Amino acid sequence: MTAQPTTQDPATGDVHAGRVASGDWDAITAEVNEYGGALLPRLLTPEEAASIRALYDSQDGVFRTTVDMGRHRFGEGQYRYFNAPYPEPIERLKQALYPRLLPIARDWWGKLGREPIWPDTLDEWLDMCHAAGQTKSTAILLEYGEKDWNALHRDLYGDLVFPLQVVINLNDPGVDHTGGEFLLLEQRPRAQSRGTAFLLPQGHGYVFTTRDRPVRSARGWSAAPVRHGVSAIRSGERHTLALVFHDAA
In 3D, which of 169, 134, 137, 175 has the Cα closest to residue 150? Predict the structure, then answer.
C-alpha cells in the first residue's frame, strides 16, 4: 500500500491510475468494511502536492467559492471549492478512484437493502447528479494554520450521494505541521460511538465513509452514521485535497 508513485497504468499509461491500482484493494476494502476508513497508496508526489498547495491563493478562476469555517461555525480555517474542469491531476485521480470504490458502495447498499443507483463510470454518475440539479463542483482545497480545526460533519450536498470519499494530505506531518489528525466518529447502533484518529502521510489518500455504512448487529445489517473532521493544528500549516464523488445542488 506504500508503493512509490511511479507506476503507470498498463492500459492507458496514466501514472495516477497506476498509483491507484498499486494499492492492495482487497486489504483496503477489508479495512474500510471494518473501520469505515483506510489508507491508500501515495497518490501524489511531494512536487505535485506542492503544486496543488500553491493554487490556494490563485485568483484566475481556479475556484468557484471560498468558505471561512469560523464564520459558519464549521471550525477554524478556510477552504475553497475548485471550479470544473479540475486542474490536473485531480480529475485523473477521481476517474481512477471511482471504479475502485464502486464495488464497495454497491456492496454496502445491498447489505442495507437499498438500491445501488451508481452507474459504471464517474461521468455517467455526474450526469445523473446534474440532471437532479446537483451541478456545482465539489473538489475542495483546505488550508489550516495554527489552532485551526474542522468540526465533525458530512459532505452530502443533495439527495444523490456517493457513500465514499477521499482526502489527501498535501503537507509533511511532523515537518510542516504538528496535530491535524484526521478524525472519524461512527455512531454505532444501540451502542456508544466509536472514534478513529489518523495522521495522514504526505501524498497518501485516505478513503472513508461519506454518510453511513453497514455494520452487523443482532438484527442483521444496520446503518451507522459517520462524521469526519480534523483535530487542532498545534503548529505549522496543513493543506488537504478532498475528493467528493457527487456534485452539489
Answer: 169
Confidence of residue 4 (pLDDT cuts 50, 70, 90): very low
Decide: helix, strand or coil at residue 233. Answer: strand
Q: How far apart are CA 208 and CA 2, in angstroms?
A: 18
CATH superfamily of 15-243: q2cbj1_9rhob like domain (2.60.120.620)
Domains in the chain: boundaries: 15-243
Cell 501524498 -> residue: 203
Q: Which residues contact 182 (CB under 8 A, 6 or more apart)?
A: 167, 169, 197, 198, 199, 200, 206, 228, 230
- CA-to-CA distance for 184 and 196, rounded, in angstroms? 5
Asked whether the predicted pLDDT for residue 2 surpasses 50, the reply is no
List phi, psi (to 5°) of 230.
-135, 130
Statement: residue 244 has pLDDT above 90: yes
Model confidence pLDDT, tens digit, residues 161-182:
999 999 999 999 999 999 999 9
Spatial CA neighbour of 138 closest among 61, 245, 227: 245
220-230 and 149-153 beta bridge pairing: antiparallel
